[in-house]
Amino acid sequence: MTGEALIDDDLVELLRVLAHPVRLKLIFAVRDQELAVGQIESATGIGQPLLSQQLGVLRNARIVETRREAKQIFYRLKPEALAPVRALADQFGASPAATTSTRDASASAAHFARILR
To answer: Each residue of 53-64: pLDDT tens digit?
Structure first.
């Protein structure tokens, strides 16, 4: 499969959502654990209303899942949500980049993939 086969509108939209620094910070906060909104706010230092707005973007992009318990809403990363980005990173590691050696390209892709896991 070529890299071009992996590029579609859904992947481009996912990358656009991930490119925002606040959203990326939120993803890292919930990547290994489920957190209530208040816990996310404490862990990230991102206050309202920006927190609610950006969690809504992640929810609409189907990157996070929610669960309600009484008045609290909990967020967690959907395990399969970042699979297209992992596949894209693997493609970068599978072929040498024009300006780097094969070994350097593979190491960079592996590092990027570790970040997303």
So the answer is: 999 999 999 999
